[in-house]
Task: inverse folding
């Protein structure tokens, strides 16, 4: 059974349909790369999975528990409980600027009373080590580079021990020379078996790391399949033209 | 001019300064939280409440503080029937006037502070499982307060100087004693002394806020 199931989700902003009947599923250990031109609805799709966007129709369920079923949301408490299985990494990191790195990691578990202070400290230090930032624990985010900020954001998302980690263009706001360090951390996570859905423009990453690729355009899934096939031998005209444009630049 | 004369006017003026400082402290301690509450009401989804709060802010910012003070101290008791119950101690009435007025200004300052907070902060907090209250108190407020701090400092200095308006409603404070001494003794010294005392108070305040800004710096 898939952990995450998305069926026929729909969303419109006024008369503009940004998501038209999108369906896909995510199995354990999947790494799904979602690619497509800007404005294709891929970020909206990802954000709707953790209820940062309100859907107009369709189903989203995690382990068989519905966040939204036929366009009707479960009770807020239940939605919160189900979405807590998912972590999210944002394009602009969204670290809390007034808190140090380690405080960023520990704020949520502390407020939600999950684990003792000692447990949370050892977990946060372990995760910072994993993303290569042990020495930055007591530093404010403003003192970090973009790549370091994003690695902190990944560690913060991991503090909740998510079953699925969602990435919304995690390297798009970074200088090109800083994307590598973030992609390396993501690759490590994938190799450890973390289930991930990654909205990205990094075609090489999609090809190397993803187990499945989805190409979205104008609010629908145009084509999906193995990343290598989709990226090197696309079947649909829209995919071809997108890849052609992307590879030129 | 002798040292003795100087000391003789210094004592009542320091007492006056005490009234000034007490009024300042009461006004600031009450009007800051009240102002924040107003900000929340303005932003609330209950529209009639938001309109009322906006109207209140408009009223308080759109009329002179002096008029408001005169209204509360001398005007309220003139209202038929209920007026006789509205005769407040002048100092209390003055405190009330300052609180009501400054809350409106602080509400606007905090509204500006809230607007400066990126929506990504709310989203990150939501995805991490924080509820609205936790998000407000642990993520939004500390940042909002830091952003608003220079404006709060500015407003506080204005408040110190506005306490001189108590003169108009005959509450004895620093300026009152200075003016009395000037009239009595025909010398300019009390005015100069009053100026120095105001400067000392605002200097302390400015240094305090500078220190607070340094402490809360995160950018």
Result:
């Amino acid at each position: 059974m898939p952990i995450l199931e998305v069926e026929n989700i729909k969303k419109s902003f006024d008369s503009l349909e940004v998501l038209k009947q999108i369906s896909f599923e995510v199995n354990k250990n999947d790494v799904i790369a979602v690619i497509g031109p800007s404005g294709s609805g891929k970020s909206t799709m990802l954000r709707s999975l953790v209820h940062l966007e309100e859907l107009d129709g369709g189903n989203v369920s995690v382990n068989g528990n519905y966040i939204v079923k036929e366009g009707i949301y479960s009770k807020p408490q239940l939605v919160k409980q189900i979405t807590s299985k998912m972590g999210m990494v944002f394009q602009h990191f969204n670290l809390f600027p007034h808190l140090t790195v380690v405080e960023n990691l520990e704020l949520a578990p502390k407020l939600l009373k999950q684990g003792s202070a000692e447990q949370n400290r050892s977990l946060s230090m372990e995760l910072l080590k994993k993303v290569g930032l042990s020495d930055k624990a007591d530093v404010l985010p403003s003192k970090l580079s973009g790549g370091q900020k994003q690695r902190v954001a990944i560690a913060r998302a991991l503090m909740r021990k998510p079953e699925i980690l969602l990435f919304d263009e995690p390297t798009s706001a970074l200088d090109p020379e800083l994307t590598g360090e973030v992609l390396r951390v993501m690759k490590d996570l994938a190799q450890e078996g973390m289930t991930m859905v990654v909205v990205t423009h990094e075609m090489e990453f999609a090809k190397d790391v993803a187990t499945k690729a989805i190409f979205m355009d104008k609010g629908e899934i145009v084509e999906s399949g193995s990343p290598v096939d989709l990226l090197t031998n696309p079947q649909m005209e829209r995919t071809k033209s997108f890849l052609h444009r992307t590879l030129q630049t | 001019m002798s040292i003795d004369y100087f000391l003789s006017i210094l004592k009542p003026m320091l007492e006056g300064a005490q009234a000034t400082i007490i009024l300042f402290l009461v006004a600031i301690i009450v009007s800051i939280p009240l102002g924040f509450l107003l900000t929340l009401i303005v932003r609330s989804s209950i529209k009639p409440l938001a309109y009322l709060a906006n109207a209140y802010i408009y009223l308080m910012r759109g009329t002179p503080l002096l008029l408001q003070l005169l209204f509360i101290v001398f005007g309220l008791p003139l209202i038929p029937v209920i007026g006789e119950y509205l005769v407040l101690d002048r100092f209390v009435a003055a405190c009330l006037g300052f609180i009501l007025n400054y809350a409106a200004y602080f509400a606007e300052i905090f509204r500006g502070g809230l607007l400066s907070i990126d929506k990504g902060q709310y989203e990150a907090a939501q995805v991490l499982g924080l509820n609205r209250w936790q998000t407000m108190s642990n993520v939004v407020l500390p940042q909002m307060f830091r952003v608003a701090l220079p404006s709060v400092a500015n407003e506080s200095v204005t408040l110190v100087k506005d306490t001189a308006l108590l003169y108009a409603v005959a509450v004895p404070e620093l300026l009152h004693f200075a003016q009395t001494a000037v009239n009595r003794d025909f010398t300019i010294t009390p005015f100069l002394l009053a100026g120095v005392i105001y400067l000392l108070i605002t200097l302390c305040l400015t240094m305090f806020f500078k220190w607070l800004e340094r402490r809360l710096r995160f950018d």
Remarks:
- Chain B touches chain A at residues 118, 120-121, 123-124, 126-130, 134, 138-139, 142-143, 146, 216, 218-219 (CB under 8 Å).
- Helices of chain B lie at 3-43, 47-62, 65-75, 90-115, 119-127, 132-162, 174-185, 189-215.
